[in-house]
Amino acid sequence: MDNTFKGQVALVTGGTKGIGKAIADTLSSKGAIVVVTARTAPKENTERQHFIAADLSQPESAEAIAKEILEKYGRIDIIVNNAGANLGPGGGFSTLSDEHWYNDWALNFMSVVRINKALVPTMIAQQYGVIINISTGAAKQPIWEMTMSYSSAKAALNIYSKALASELGPKGIRVNVVSPGVVKTPLMLEFIENIAKTSNSTIDDAFQGIMDKVGVPLGRMAAPQEIAELVTFLASPEAKYITGSNYAVDGGASPTV
Asked: What is the tally of structural domains in the chain?
């Protein structure tokens, strides 16, 4: 058994499916005690992981999660802020109400700020911790028809992460960002299906339309495990001199280095 993270406590928000589940399972396989959050409990058995039901768009959730983790385990070593979703409708600026903007920012930005604020003091007391914020390639390359409010929230997350890395580095805490491109998750498949319905096209055509807009040289979606492997590396001792960085895992979609 790989005991890279033996004795360490890790939190993975949105950790019951897709990218979050792959990250949580990989950290578990390497010896970590893993806490996962989601709005509803997973259907499969989660004996290997401690589940906390939480809606991270609600301000009170972060304190409740932190309280349960610290009362049960007394420490927190790794935070993976993975929970997020593109909640706004497509169609550009004119289709987005104030509520759409608030919803995207509450889940994709403020939830991360609150989780970190609740748990970072414990990391500071330990003089050790790793924070990995999951962003998106769309934060740098937004698709106006699909991701305007979501992209803006994630762009703010990128800047916040850099500032946090600068503040916390002297205290022994590393902060990095992982920015996936198009990943084959249940949420992405649902997103493609919705595009197909609203555009009166097939799922294959809707998928190809996204790939054409994003432009993926490798020509396919990533598997969640491919994101999890990088996150796990960044959380490990092998990455102990890496902080304040943003890693694209997008099949070459980013137009610049």
From this structure: 2
> CA of 233: how far to CAs of 79, 141, 170, in Å?
14, 25, 21
Q: Are residues 83 and 130 in the same domain?
A: yes
Q: Which CATH number does the domain housing residue 94 bear? A: 3.40.50.720
Catalytic residues: 150
Co-location of 109 and 69 in the same domain = yes
Residue 126 belongs to domain spanning: 9-181+225-249
Residue indicated by tokens 């950290």 = 27
Q: Tell me the per-residue pLDDT of 73-98, one tens digit each, with 9 for 90 and over.
A: 999 999 999 999 988 887 889 889 99
pTM for the predicted model, two decimal places: 0.93
207 belongs to a structural domain: yes
* 204 in the same domain as 162: no
3-class secondary-structure state, position 49: strand
CB 247 within 8 A of CB 177: yes
Which residues, in sequence order, are CB contacts of 108 under 8 Å at separation 6+? Answer: 84, 85, 150, 153, 154, 157
Comparing CA positions, the residue from 46, 100, 60, 52 lying closest to residue 76 is: 52
Integer Cα distance of 41 and 138 in angstroms: 29
Encode pLDDT of 178-216 as tens digits: 999 999 998 888 888 888 888 889 998 888 888 888 889
